[in-house]
């Protein structure tokens, strides 16, 4: 049974709609991945800063502790 032009046009239209939908989904996925990567970078930067702050706090506390030990001895 041969396929009519109108039937082919309908099928092509449906396939084009599916392709457009998939293209949109891929685009949204890429944007989401980029946003997630940016958020991860911000978290890494924040953790690096906090790690530096903790090292400074540790050094300060060690100096305070050393001073207290000297004054009690």
H/E series:
H
Topology, number of strands: 0
Low-pLDDT ranges: none
How much of the sequence lies in strands comes to: under 5%
The chain-level mean pLDDT equals 94
Helix content: over 70%
Radius of gyration: 31 Å
* Biggest sheet overview: none
| Total helical segments | 1
Which structural class is indicated by helix and strand composition? mainly alpha
What is the molecular shape?
Answer: rod-shaped
Terminal CA distance = 104 Å
Explain the overall architecture.
This protein is mainly alpha-helical and 73 residues long. The chain is built from 1 helix and no strands. The termini are far apart.
Q: How is this structure best summarized?
A:
93% of the residues lie in helices and 0% in strands. It has one helix at residues 5-72.
Write the layout of secondary structure elements.
Blueprint: H1 5-72
Task: Quickly list its features.
mainly alpha; 73 residues
